[in-house]
Fold this sequence. Notes:
The protein is an alpha/beta fold and 336 residues long.
Amino acid sequence: NKQVILKDYVSGFPKESDMNIVDSTITLKLPQDSNELLLKNLYLSCDPYMRILMTKDTTGGLGAHTPGSPLIGYGVSKVLESGHQDYKKGDLVWGITKWEEYSLIPAAGMFKIEHTDVPLSYYTGILGMPGMTAYAGFFELGCPKKGENVFVSAASGAVGQLVGQFAKLAGCYVVGSAGTKEKVDLLKNKFGYDEAFNYKEEHDLNAALKRYFPEGIDIYFENVGSKTLDAVLLNMRVHGRIPVCGMISQYNLTQPEGVTNLAHLIYKRIHMQGFVVVDYYHLYTKFLEFVSPLIREGKVVYVEDIAEGLENGPAALIGLYNGRNVGKQVVVVAHE
Ligand code: NDP
């Protein structure tokens, strides 16, 4: 059973050498009525929060990886044996699994995959956790109205590419920022963003936002934090909303950076709210009913960045923090 093991807690920017690929010969056996599933992992999802779980004494309540054990993370898997009455051999599931070829996982918390007329890897992205994140964050917290101005950071990624498309479907004007020319082109030509810019080429983010939003921003979908948030706060409109989805620029820092313009929350009566997607999983069926027809009709598209082989998982995961991924980063462990 090949595994990706976290060697020790990580401080600072993660490195491939923080993880080991090992091959163990342990036989996984499922006890009867254990309510567990013996899974063959097919696709693993690289998600920015996985770095937070590599830190000792994570206080965020998100759980933690255990040094010496495989990484934990979202994936798509096939049931080889079931100790739970709702699942049988051959079922496909998505949910939290481990970075290894075969896993024993509690059935509770797994989602059964019913629709297989899409790439199965979509359940690590558009039809899985990142899709739900974009949906809950944008619609439930962003409360968009037709004609409003929306700004999205990390706009071409797993979550951001969907927020932009949902914003267009909601009749909004939407601008995205990303870190390369290739990503900026994707935003404009593939995901339908009205405008996009490379934040690494803007010396003055405040001026850039003023250029794209002369009348201000109604909704800022926050994925990166720090300087971007500071510049956004200066450009929000009265009664604007900021769903705080993530702050990837902070996850590798030992000393988090400060934000200086928070007083604008008061002046502009802004509603800024952090959220964690798991609190919205009760909306999953509703989300599938919303997004599945859009995928079938080609009204929403999804770009994935596929790494082949569990052994390439560590590099793929680390790539999230330097922007190597273009779209949703997936690791293929096995094709069905
Ligand atoms: P992405 O697919 O967008 O990958 C991460 C991207 O972040 C990189 O490609 C890079 O793009 C950008 N990035 C990396 N470092 C920095 C930096 N220092 N400053 C600015 N941008 C940076 O990831 P996801 O779509 O999966 O996640 C996006 C955000 O959403 C993350 O903050 C994540 O933690 C959060 N999230 C939160 C959830 C929740 O429940 N609240 C659930 C899922 C995700 P670029 O080239 O453009 O810089």
